[in-house]
Amino acid sequence: MNKASPELGAVREVDGRRVMVDVGDRFEATLSIPVGEGRDYVVGQPGSLVTINVGPRTRVIGLVTAMRMAETVGTGEDGRPAAVERKRFEAQLIGELSGGRFRRGVGSYPVVGSKVFAPDDADIAALFGDPDGNGLSVGRLTQPEGSRCFIRVDRFFGRHAAVVGMTGTGKSSAVAGLLQKASDPARYPHAHIVILDTHNEYRSAFPGANYLSGDSLKLPYWLLNFAELREVFADRTEHAALNQIRFFRDAVLALKRENLEKQLRDIAGLIGETDARRLLRERLTVDTPVYFDLRELLARAEREDAGRSRSSQYLQNFILRLRSKLEDRRLGFLTDIRDCGHSAVLPTVIENLLNAGGGVTIVDLSGVPSEARSVVVSVVARTAFDFNLWNPWRRQYPICLVCEEAHAYLAESRSGETGPAGEQIGRIAREGRKYGVGLIVVSQRPAELPAAVLSQCGTFVAFRLTNEADQGHVRRLTPDSAGGLLEALPNLQQGEALLIGEAALMPCRVMLDGPDPAPSGDDVPFNRSWREGPSGFDMGAAVRKWWLQEKDG
User: Fold this and answer.
1) Dihedral sign, CA of 421, 425, 427, 432?
2) How many CA atoms lie within 13 A of 35 on its CB side?
3) pLDDT digits (tens, 9 = 90+) for 519-552
4) Residue 149's beta-bridge partner residues?
5) Which site from 49, 67, 76, 443 is most exposed, i.e. has the minimal number of CB atoms within 10 Å?
6) Per DSSP, which regions of 78-126 are E strands?
7) Domains of the chain
């Protein structure tokens, strides 16, 4: 028996998933009892835990999902049998505690009449603690109150995670706090974390990060595969699109081959002459990340079009689109290759993007045009995946990709397409675990994200959600064992989340730790600003920033 814990009642009914428990008579006056050190336990509180003995050293763990008054047969004032009401709660069976270790699933079921107990401090430590010393403390449990909650690092980062919740519920702060711990140089000096930052929120939370934005963000166009090049520089909706794309593909491959021949000596200095010639003769494809001259491509397109009838519009729209992209200052991170006009700089480009020395890289997407954002995400994701796919030291070089506001570039179109970003993020979701590439997807609209991505997430961190479609999406993708706990989704507090899945032994409610320093995504103070007004406001300076497309850090 579990003598250290108070007895709560007895099992009234049992099936393959749950038990119904009649609460003991001692709780008629109050449902709150002290347990452990400074903790109170509320009997029947949804989300609380119970234990039921099923063997000498084995107890089943249940998660309370509902509490109600139930009519049963008792003894009336006259001593005869009579209908009486008593408190009864329902608990979902989660797993077993045996020898101080928890395992999911139930091997031996309790029987009717089995006594039900509150968990003691040792139970809480076994369920939510860090027995192996390899966990990461991420917050404070709200049920049971006060205890620390640990996640298993390998399961959280290696088997993908989804962080979902309404705007303003504390997602970014929680993610920043968790990543600060995971990149702490005192504990994890060789962490490799890449944050795709949609709104430039994370820079203030990681002052020492490798920050890539504007002039420091270099993704030379020749790093793009053909699908990504087509997304930026061609229009698939035009009448002559097939002819344009065919010309585009053939010209890119020809230019890559010509430039590789010219730069063969430098490439040989990087990978050896034999392998350089093998690359040129056997391995080169239109997707191989080697240099080609985009302006020479434009010149060839103009020469090709000049030989056609003016009425055919064979390549005219393609030429106009390509020229406009080359002149678009906002795409300078792709088209300005003054320092990247050679295939031999590829190792440097990857080292800059993945922060080869270890730590956090922030890719600021706030200044990237919306039509190019999906391509940038695709390139970063594909570079991380392909690098570790071919990296013989991948087990010593795991990478975590964090997709902030993922719905902005992963949402499916009406035709079911997700674009280049969805294709590459989906690839990581499906195959990244094998090659040491983990994924954290952060979104306020989980219903808009591809199910193929979310279904591969082993852990869910769910903040408050009030939209029924979003709640239903999360319910469908999380384990059945969390079903009752998910009823709390619309009622969670600010900064509180449900932690469900492989990174936590047990589904739980947790108040996640905040970051220090914090990201810059706090709400604008309307009340104070409208009362006090702006300080030193200069309309001319604001317009200058707009014209030059310069943002404050």
Assistant:
1) positive
2) 29
3) 987 677 888 888 888 877 888 988 988 887 777 6
4) 139
5) 76
6) 81-98, 101-104, 115-117
7) 7-128 (no CATH), 155-219+342-467 (3.40.50.300), 221-336 (no CATH)
